[in-house]
Amino acid sequence: MKLLKRTMTGLAMGALVMNAQAADKVELEGAKVGVWTMDYDAAVKLAGEKKLPLMLNFTGSDWCGWCKLMDEKVFAEEVWKAYAKENVLLVTLDFPRDKSIVPEKYVERNEKLQEQFGVRGFPTYVVLDNDGKTKLGQLGAGRDKTPSTFIDEFKGVALMSAGSIEAFLKANPDKAEAYKAAIAELRDAEKKLEVAKKPLNDWLKTRPKRTEENTKKFEGFNKSIGEAQKGVTEAEVAVREFH
Q: Of 40, 41, 79, 168, which residue is 20 to 30 A from 129 by alpha carbon distance?
């Protein structure tokens, strides 16, 4: 029985350090480029110093099937690790069933970040600029995703990071003014999208009943959001054409 108890204790500690994540070990303190950590503050600090974007992995490491699939098929692969080591700060925001996996000091903070970035399902990968506040975009899981396809998706979102913009302007001074104008149009389109979303979000908080009138109202909100989203998509295409 003593041997069994020691073994169980060892397994629990292993879960804490490894975070039940097939991709790699998850650090509990500190941050390194390309290494998963739960220490959001340390990652944001280093992102600012290195001028690199962050990716927040909202996950349920010990129960979420799609999370485990992405860990195994994408994040555990050397192609992804090699890319991440040079290009991104990785933060794990875990919502496991086994509460021993996440240190108590991170639990409330994880919940606040989930609310802040409007995360409603797992896994969700929120990409932030190096200030740790500006959301550049978000990515999701997929059965057919590979390290290469996910890297391409990440690059597409990270194009709008401060570091990426600075590097492009430095390498292409002849395109600077046109590129800045395209970015300004994208920022404006993104603001219009947020404005379009707000009435729907506020309305949904009232818990409206399913009626014919409310259905039409819902469709009207979605139409406005769709038009605003179209503007964002077109502006994103214009920015990517420079690359």
A: 79
